[in-house]
Prior knowledge:
By secondary structure, the chain is mainly α. It has a single domain, classed as Four Helix Bundle (Hemerythrin (Met), subunit A), CATH 1.20.120.330. Helices cover 74% and strands 0% of the residues. It is built from 5 helices and no strands. It is globular and about 45 Å long. Keywords: Transferase. One of its GO terms (molecular function) is transferase activity.
Amino acid sequence: xxxxxxxxxxxxxxxxxxxxxxxxxxxxxxxxxxxxxxxxxxxxxxxxxxxxxxxxxxxxxxxxxxxxxxxxxxxxxxxxxxxxxxxxxxxxxxxxxxxxxxxxxxxxxxxxxxxxxxxxxxxxxxxxxxxxxxxx
Length: 136
């Protein structure tokens, strides 16, 4: 990633948000969360996804890849084509769900998305974090 000490460090931010979001999703009784707690969980998910995309963008640029598309979906597609990601469809679904929740601001919609967050998205985000940590 960028070595300039004045640059933001999205990978460190990604790691922090990932840990906080995982802890909440794995330890909380989601059926007992208040609307405010659900919104907090959503915000953690949103930021984790945003930092994951930013981290991928920075990694590809550091590796000399010239990105043709800078939208989150475009970055993910290019990351998949460059073999940074093993699959693309669940990542696109993750962005779609993130966008849906972001634009509706309805905490109750998160309850419908939580199974995908728990079963699909967090494992993908965790794998990306682990893969990036393993790189030199």
